[in-house]
């Protein structure tokens, strides 16, 4: 950038000094100073020029002292001439100083160049993950909360009574064999605690603690002594329970349909109810959901394949009696659904065992962002 | 339960296809697991007749046959010795695949003679190992017809999963009854007719039980058939059994197996010549041998586990240290499966004068079983108690068809008809002369009739059906309904032990009509805006989970059970929290802490080549089996170089190695999210023994309430877990956090002064062991009105600081309230701070 200058030759005629005969050569001084300004190469040099021109012992203050020695009639015009000189030199000085400062800054900035292609750390929000089981549990919770269900919980180590007997599975009942139960040694009361084989004991805990009407879901870990490609000794279920004086099978169907539509985010689900048997419900059903497999992708609500996803039924009168409820008055439904299984269906994980291997590669790939909280307002699926 | 289509049609008049039958079975609760059609595999093969048979010109053992396949006459070279003119066999044309040879036939020249196909042996069709000659079909087999039909292998086999409540469907007739009720045909009438005995039963039957155990075998019927000719059963019967995967034995045994599958009625046949004296159902009676043993109570458990026959002579008296034990000489049974089983006094056995003959309802004995040589057969048809049968079977791990049926409950009213059916079949297949039937005991009562309000169906299912339809469906199942109008009297059939009340009938009607017919009915929602569905504790868990994830930790779910040695390292591994039947010893002990699982998971990731990272988990940790001893914990591990800003190396600088402060920061941040700010927490050095003693701490709320622990693990613990440093962990006990006492959501008014706060720095020289928290607390207490914040900005040891000392610098923020502080006021506060710190810690101001 070139500093603005006003060359002497272009000075307007009106500014021509009133007298040229003065022993003091103002023009010479001006051109000398302007030259010095012009040729100053850095800010230190320009400061030297400024001090030489305007400093206490500088050339211009010296000129002003000479004004007094002039004839009175010449003083005015000389003074004006000096002032003009002062202004012009000052301006030139200022301009040059700015130009040099700008150049110096530009040079400094040019050296402050960062490699903006260097990668940045994404920070903790990008690193952290929520496990699919937690995420899907949150999704399920959101849907059922909207239908007026509260969330109930129970311990993993259960009493034989809560896990079996109260659920109409007395000792020696053949259904006990189907449960592949993990047992603990006999306790002081002679009973053997078990690792709960299903979330159904939470039904018992809920009905013993509170009076109808009840609407709960109970997600949690369950255990079966079974291990292969599709079975792990620990997995997750969510239990549903509604008890009041009029809820029937038709309501159960509606709740399951609404849930599955909301969960899978589809307009329509194909469901198939098969009569089945669970000791704690009557009638009992198993429910299959229709799907299509397109490549590796599973599409719910399309196609003609069936996959069993849950068991359900009307709560057995004996279960109601076991918790002190009158089956003549109270009725309702219960269902149990595999959380891991519907997580796999929805998000496409191929292998159940990987859920529990704590492999960071798997968790980062199938896990969910920390702030991807499922809400009805913002959408359930991530 | 398996059966074939032809077998089903003996009980069910139906025109339905296999597919329709299978769909219906699945819908009504008899889930079809497999439909196997053997004819499909045999489709290429046809019946053909050998017309001419001549010796091969170039080979001694080969013949050249002319074969009529029904469509053409072909020359076939055959090596079978039984090949001859007139024989009808199974012909494999060129292009067909021979399963037993795994070969696709081509037109070939065998020793110079052209051969156009092949006549097959049983082994070549994979029907048996028979390969001495080609299959000889019946002379009336139509030439050119499918070989499957001529072989009797055109019958589809259907396998259904029968739920434990349906013992009646462990027989083909029960399945047929269900299908008929579901509208898929008509149940054929039963044809069992009693066979009159020719002589008195020579084998007396006794039931030897006391009143309390009489239900073990309340009914035992039997009869002798003399002069039978045993041996292989006819082809149709063997074919039936083989189709089900059963091994034909001999006619007498095959008949019992057939009836077991046809009628869900297990029977047993004895070689009557091997019986000694009366046949008796009883509990196993061991011979006692008393030995005095002085066992402590703890020893008794071990002892009983090793000696199932040990019974204590006297009652246990609490506090008494020693007592006597009575032993019983164990009994044993050599059972039909060739194995020997120990007996105990809880088991119902069948015995004669020679000893135990069999386990009632479970398995017969080897010594008295019927063989090909049997000429006098005694047939047993009894009712055994389901529970006792289940116990015995489970104890001895015997899976038999008899146990499977008895433990689910056989039809008590079919004990004698079943014996009559067996008699008729024995006479038919083996000849002989039957004795009269002897019956000991009476059949247990079927479920009592009950009142049934037909309106219950609508109330429970929402299904609106006319009463006539309800009556029709239930009658088809054998439920006797009496009365008119809405409330009926229902008597369940003897073969349905699962029907005992009105809800059971609702289930029957709903499954037969189909749940698909139940109209989906919206559930009324509560009006207004929904209340939170989560409890306070659940909200905390959700919040902590998201907070930890947003600090860069990755959520894992690890097993609730861990190796016992790892559990012991973390204060667990008690016997009462160790599984009796773990899936492996590595998954046997309930975790006392989430840390062992996370730390070993961290190491597995390292071993996979991920050197840095952070994991966390929320879940139960187990201190006992009571609900209140199963605590919800949140735990995390940072390993390698992992910090809030990220993990691992970066051009901007490597993340710091995971250490006690990284772990503390995570723990404190999670608690802060739950409303517990750092100032309200006490940090103590009381971390458990599995932590590094110097680089760990506990977060407490008051002296007794520990909310969590954090730090680096003890190097020995790390070593035993096979994990490498650097690694730091924390664990929070979410259930220990007291519920919020806040009663209002309104926040207190903001107290923001217009006056500038001032900051003053103080550096203290302290003993190295002085806790920073004590300095901060002392400084804070110096003037509670003015001092709003105390921060630590430097901790230093080394040059200029004497050995055993440290320099700790704090920044104190003073907030003037009413007017600007004068220099003398500031000096006064500063002096108070120095004095307070000196008093609390012995520290001196560094100058």
CATH superfamily of the largest domain in chain A: Bira Bifunctional Protein, Domain 2
Runs of chain A in which pLDDT lies below 50 for 5 or more consecutive residues are 6-21
- CATH first level of the largest domain in chain A: Alpha Beta
Mean pLDDT of chain B: 90
Q: Quickly count the domains of chain A.
A: 2
Helix content of chain B: 25-40%
Estimated helix fraction of chain A: 25-40%
Strands of chain A, total number? 10
Strand content of chain B: 25-35%
Q: Might you state the CATH topology name of the largest domain in chain A?
A: BirA Bifunctional Protein, domain 2
CATH superfamily of the largest domain in chain B: Bira Bifunctional Protein, Domain 2
Spans of chain B of 5+ residues with little confidence (pLDDT < 50)? 316-321
CATH architectural type of the largest domain in chain B: 2-Layer Sandwich
Written account of the structure:
The complex is a heterodimer of chains A (382) and B (847). Chain A has 382 residues and is α+β, with helices and mostly antiparallel strands. Chain A has 2 domains: 24-111; 131-366, Bira Bifunctional Protein, Domain 2 (BirA Bifunctional Protein, domain 2, 2-Layer Sandwich), CATH 3.30.930.10. Chain A is built from 13 helices and 10 strands. In chain A, the strands form 2 sheets. In chain A, strands 1, 4, 5, 6, 7, 8, 9 and 10 form an 8-stranded mixed sheet that branches. In chain A, strand 6 and strand 7 (281-294) form a beta hairpin. The radius of gyration of chain A is 45 Å and the shape is rod-shaped. By secondary structure, chain B is of the alpha+beta class. Chain B has 21 helices and 47 strands. In chain B, the strands form 14 sheets. In chain B, strands 33-36-37-43-42-41-40 form a 7-stranded mixed sheet, with helices on both faces. In chain B, a hairpin with a 3-residue loop joins strand 41 (691-701) and strand 42. In chain B, helix 6 crosses helix 7 (251-263) and helix 20 (772-782) packs antiparallel against helix 21 (823-841). Chain B is elongated, with a radius of gyration of 42 Å. Chains A and B meet through helix 5, helix 6, strand 1, helix 8 and helix 10 of A and helix 9, helix 12, helix 14, helix 15 and strand 33 of B.
